[in-house]
């Protein structure tokens, strides 16, 4: 890990892990919809707002963190006392406090996505120094990625206990998950999906929370796409909070990311809540996708 960021990243990942049991315990009582919507126009659950406030409070307190942004907030919050100054070593955190919170009412997987940039937000994926996600499944796990690779932890008790080091995508892919409604897929993506589905070594795994589907790809090899749609040319997922961190994690695990034409990490940031088509997985599958969309 780049020494200038090692301490800051460790503090951020430890803080996110420490909050995991507290957030998981609070979920049962916060399944209700609030009458608020987030900047992307999605209905907020009480759990979304609760988790967002908790992350801002704890991450904002860290000396190394100078800026906090989340899917639930219109603007970034400057959390240091020297205002807009951005000094070497400062870190910005962009977080999806509860990715897939609509799965809460159906008791399916969900969790938290964290992107750590060494640049003001909105930032390019090239400015990422680390990324992570916490997955609330049958057990609570955390995946972290930095310049040393990808590690999986058990975080049930709020501490990070390593369960897998140097995590890489299996060479032989076996799962796929494609978001959006099939009639809304552009023809070239629909053709690619048909090709993948015709492959009898591939099984459909799509659960409605990106990180649950990504964890399937990271564990079994395959491809996850939330493509550009006819009704939404930039797709649904947000670059700062979903596309960049997940692209960083999958690329750090030896896979590929793409917005349809090239690495998601190269997409120019223009707005904090900009959307981006997201394709991540084994190199061969992503290369075939880019050829299909070309
Ligand atoms: P759809 C959850 O709301 C999310 O942002 C991602 O976690 C997930 O991959 C996607 O949206 C699911 O979208 O259209 O299938 O409900």
From TrEMBL:
It catalyses: beta-D-fructose 1,6-bisphosphate + H2O = beta-D-fructose 6-phosphate + phosphate. It comes from the Archaea. Its EC number is 3.1.3.11. Its cofactor is Mg(2+). Residues 34-157 form the Fructose-1-6-bisphosphatase class I N-terminal domain. Residues 169-293 form the Fructose-1-6-bisphosphatase class 1 C-terminal domain. GO terms for cellular component: cytoplasm. The keyword Magnesium applies. It is an enzyme of class 3 (hydrolase). This is Fructose-1,6-bisphosphatase class 1. It comes from Halogranum gelatinilyticum. The lineage of its organism: Archaea, Methanobacteriati, Methanobacteriota, Stenosarchaea group, Halobacteria.
């Amino acid at each position: 890990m780049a020494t200038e960021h090692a301490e800051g990243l460790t503090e951020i990942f430890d803080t996110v892990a420490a909050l995991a049991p507290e957030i998981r315990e609070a979920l049962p009582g916060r399944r209700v919809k609030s009458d608020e919507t987030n900047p992307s126009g999605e209905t907020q659950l009480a759990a979304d707002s609760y988790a967002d406030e908790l992350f801002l409070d704890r991450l904002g307190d860290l000396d190394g963190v100078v800026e906090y942004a989340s899917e639930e907030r219109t603007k970034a919050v400057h959390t240091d006392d020297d205002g807009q100054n951005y000094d070497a070593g400062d870190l910005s955190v962009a977080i999806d406090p509860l990715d897939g919170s609509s799965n809460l009412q159906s008791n399916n997987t969900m969790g938290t996505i964290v992107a750590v940039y060494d640049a003001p937000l909105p930032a390019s994926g090239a400015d990422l120094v680390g990324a992570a996600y916490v997955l609330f499944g049958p057990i609570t796990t955390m995946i972290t990625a930095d310049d040393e690779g990808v590690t999986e932890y058990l975080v049930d008790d709020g501490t990070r206990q390593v369960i897998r080091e140097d995590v890489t995508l299996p060479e032989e892919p076996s799962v796929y998950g494609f978001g959006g409604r099939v009639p809304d897929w552009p023809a070239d993506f629909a053709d690619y999906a048909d090709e993948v589905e015709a492959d009898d070594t591939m099984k459909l795994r799509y659960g409605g929370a990106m990180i649950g589907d990504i964890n399937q790809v990271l564990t079994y090899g395959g491809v996850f796409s939330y493509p550009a749609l006819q009704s939404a040319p930039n797709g649904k997922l947000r670059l700062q909070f979903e596309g960049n961190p997940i692209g960083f994690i999958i690329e750090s695990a030896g896979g590929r990311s793409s917005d349809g034409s090239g690495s998601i990490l190269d997409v120019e940031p223009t707005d904090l809540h900009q959307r981006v088509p997201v394709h991540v997985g084994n190199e061969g599958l992503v290369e075939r996708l880019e050829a299909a969309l070309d």
